[in-house]
Hints:
This protein is mostly beta strands. 11% of the residues lie in helices and 33% in strands. The protein has one domain (36-222). It has 1 helix and 13 strands, in the order αβββββββββββββ. The protein has a 6-stranded antiparallel β-barrel with strand order 1-3-6-7-8-13. Strands 2-12 form a two-stranded antiparallel ribbon. Strand 6 and strand 7 (98-108) form a beta hairpin. 33% of the residues are buried.
Amino acid sequence: MSRIISAVPMIFFASALCIGQMAAQTRPAVSSAAAGHGSFPVKVTKTLDSSKLKEGDAVALETTGSFKLPDGTLVPKGSKMVGHVTSAKARSKGDPESELVIALDKLDIVKGKELTVKGTVQAVFPPSEEADPGMPVTSSHQGGGGAGLSAGSVPPPDYKPTTDIKTGVATENTASVQPASDPKSTGVHGIHDLSLEDGVLRSKGKNVKLGSGVQLIVHVDIFG
Length: 224
């Protein structure tokens, strides 16, 4: 009788284990794949200064035009984008350059909806007081140079960037600067002593400083 009683807890444990395994098998898997990706224009809303920032500090940006996500969701002009600093340093003795790197984490859109994103800075332009150009949605199958998100869009054959792709430094004067709303823009335009390569902003000056209103093209993966 004592053997039968002692076996009862083991039977219950084995049953619970089987039920747990069955539930795990039927539970839908959470996908880590991005729901969409693309590039769009934003602006700095609070000055970013590498001499005053440290790793982990919050970064606030704001969309400068409206566009649609791949699923059709409209992101209105003025939507907030939140990121954080991953590297910031001022030029000090022995350092040839100052540096600033930011990572983008979240995009707030209509009615408090928040999307998780992963993004970096793709291009930099000086502040502009120009009106919203409308920024129509584009895709790899359309001409035009709007700022909508598109999956895998590529520049047209006749596209000629005004930056040195290897260094990210502007190679032409500000009179030939690409529109800050063009999602194909790369590198730094119209700002002296600043370069951009693989999301890393560098300056030979004592600090990397992006004042309020500086315009950026950011590239993001959207995870929903």
